[in-house]
Design a protein that fits this description.
The chain is α/β, with parallel strands linked by helices and about 240 residues long. It is built from eight helices and nine strands.
Length: about 240
């Protein structure tokens, strides 16, 4: 029996007059969207318009909350407490949820962004706080988190629905974490290599780490970064293959 994998994409990451990615075209090729909530990128008008488009195209809608780091695009680590993480997720998701509810849609999931995502993947206390926030949102909201990370453990402890996420365009450490963007070769820029990695994760449940070792992963959802120059072409190709 063939197993379906969700294709998700981070969207709404422009700001004001500054555009990033072809979000509305990309919606035709993904199953779920993670919409920036204006802390690392995005703005209210973008949030409203993307929600409307996603509802029209039957794309599942999720929030993409981050650390309060607009200048650093949410990619700089910060020393935060679990209480901070809880508040950040609820505050940003609540703003997006208002746009969803007023347009007759439903919040499907929460996927933390950038440094918040990566810090929670390694810190069980932060992961539990994020999972608790998602649980308190109610209505079966799903948490998207890095496969085999602390986020998965926290969600399972708190009985929060979890979809384990994998990345086609990122390299992995032997421990199963995403290689830091500051590290050489952290990003996979060759489309053929990214496609091959995506297929391996989806079909075989494994990925090759930077040191050549094999890391086991559960691929419930695959991220396509919407800010990439070739994101639309990649989405078309990976969708047809999967």
């Amino acid at each position: 029996m063939k197993r379906k994998i969700d294709l998700n994409s981070d969207m709404g990451e422009g700001f004001g007059v500054w555009e990033m990615g072809d979000d509305f075209a990309l919606l035709d090729y993904v199953d779920s969207t993670n919409i920036a909530c204006a802390w690392h990128a995005g703005d209210p008008e973008r949030m409203k318009n993307l929600v409307a488009a996603a509802i029209k195209k039957n794309v599942l809608i999720g929030s993409h909350p981050s650390l309060p780091d607009l200048l650093g695009f949410g990619r700089r680590e910060m020393a935060i407490t679990p209480n901070d993480a809880y508040n950040y997720v609820l505050y940003q998701t609540g703003a997006l949820q208002a746009f969803i509810q007023t347009q007759g849609g439903k919040l499907h999931h929460v996927k933390p962004h950038g440094a918040l995502y990566n810090q929670a993947a390694k810190d069980l206390k932060l992961a539990r706080a994020i999972a608790q926030a998602v649980k308190d949102l109610g209505n079966g909201v799903i948490l998207y988190g890095l496969a085999s990370s602390c986020v998965v453990q926290a969600a399972q402890e708190l009985n929060v629905p979890i979809w384990q996420e994998v990345f086609a365009d990122r390299r992995y450490t032997p421990e199963g974490y995403l290689a830091p963007r500051s590290q050489a070769n952290a990003l996979i820029e060759d489309e053929g290599e990214a496609v091959a990695q995506a297929l391996r994760m989806a079909n075989e449940g494994e990925v090759q780490a930077l040191d050549g070792s094999i890391v086991k992963v559960q691929a419930d959802t695959l991220c396509i970064h919407g800010d990439g120059a070739s994101a639309l072409d990649f989405a078309k190709k990976i969708r047809s293959l999967l």
